[in-house]
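Data deposition worksheet. Section B asks for the primary sequence of the deposited chain exactly as it was used as input, without tags or linkers unless they were present during the calculation. Section C holds the resulting structure in token form. Section D is free text for depositor observations; keep each observation to a single sentence. Incomplete worksheets are returned to the depositor.
Section A, Depositor: J.P.
Section B:
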Amino acid sequence: MSALYDSPHQFEPLLPSQSAQEPLLAKAHDLAISASALAGQPIAREMRGLLRSMNSYYTNRIEGQHTRPHELEQALRKDYSHDRALAMRQRLAVAHIQAEAELESRYVGESGAKALYGLPAVCDLHHTLFAQLSPDDRLTADGAAIEPGQLRQREVRVGQHVAPAAASIKRLVERWAAAYGSVRRGEASLLAMAAAHQRLGWIHPFADGNGRVMRLHTHTLLSAMGYTGGLWSPLRGFARTVDRYYALLAAADEPRQGDLDGRGNLSESALVAWIDYVLDICQDQVTFMRSMLDLATMQGRIAACLSFEQESLKSGVRLEALRPLHYLFLSGTDIDRGEFKRMTGLGERTAVNLLGALVKRGLLSSDSPQGKVRFGLPLHALRFYFPALWPEAEADVGAG
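Section C:
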């Protein structure tokens, strides 16, 4: 093996030159405006849980270790498969969901975003994910143990990329953190977020789990910066364009291609292409979720779901639930069960039966048998409420 990378200058440029940044900054400006406008929707509280499950599904799919959505739902109920390999994937999926929730609460606001650019945070991301798994579940493909939060101690090659020397990882991550953590301006910070994802992969700080950590870092950083509001994540977009995701990541590892390709050791044009891709993915996810949350059409989508439940499934759900359900969607609040029943306009006994059917079908959520109720988002309702948000879950309804 030739001499390993071991110096910070060898993964320059960390950001494109100012002239190369201009078109990217224009895209980032548009993204910041549209993402900020989307954040703060009342439905975000219920969407967060769904989004975390979806993110877990998609990040594991990128790694080729995904579970089907109904298998993920079973795992969340601690109903694991008797198949050992599938059960391991289920536990990994649940660990990602729990890690995402913990990290979002730990890294909040400007201080949280700043902290994410540091060696302690990078190790914390890895530890938070893998420490939830038993030693038997923390094994690489070749049977080596994955130590949560521990930097790799051996040399590795990933595809065509020979990762830097293990002894240089701390120094490289410190340079990574100093460069990206010092970017404060709104639009530029989005460029830094995208570039940081790729360059963290170049460093390859851990023996295993680097891709997961990179994606957790990007997701958590966007959350801390106030752009996602619990309503979207680039992970869905990365998974749905996975070949391009990997191709652009790898291309940005390549050496500079001649005198017109920047002044660093690595290709500036490939880094620009990667950043451009990430911004496009983010904007696409924001635009999609904005269309899904269109208030003018949501009432009709709720009505379609209720009609299907009433006419086709005979589940005890009735169209009279439309008014209170639509209210709960718009307000994002919890209401007393008595108030919900009154809003249906039905008699007491019929309203009680309707409310029970809605809870049983997951169309209403509650924290206790007699507690307040709120809008629910079960997987089987996605094809009505948010068509094409998670097509694999829609196709998987009723499986298992």
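Section D:
The two ends are 48 Å apart (CA to CA).
Residues 306 and 312 are 10 Å apart (CA to CA).
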